């Protein structure tokens, strides 16, 4: 059983997923740059602005982890699972994450950062 409260666990998981998102987007930048798109600039701007938003959120996560003396470390990975160690208030916990779940959650977050985060600001402007 984990000693980590749900709120802190969510932040710890952001420390796992947000760097994955940045890796995916960095690869996408390379693909767009080397592609034969006629108009690359809008795609590049979308990816770059998305990366800035993720980097901003990741900085907040890192500040929170540092302030609360929480550490996250990737230990090992195989075809099915990736193991992380969380150090929380002096206690070490190892957690296995199913790789397809990591991929699916990363995809969900990518969808959020690319599209859904704009829905709320679009609705606020109409009101």
Walk me through what this model shows.
- This protein is an alpha+beta fold and 127 residues long.
- It has one domain.
- It is built from three helices and three strands; from the N terminus they run ααβββα.
- Helix 1 crosses helix 3.
- The longest helix is centred in the first third of the chain and has 28 residues, at 6-33.
- The radius of gyration is 17 Å and the shape is globular.
- The relative contact order is 0.15.
- Pfam families: YhjD.
- It comes from Lederbergia citri.
State the shape.
globular
Total number of strands: 3
Cα Rg:
17 Å
Report the sheet with the most strands, covering strand number, pairing sense and barrel closure. 3 strands, antiparallel
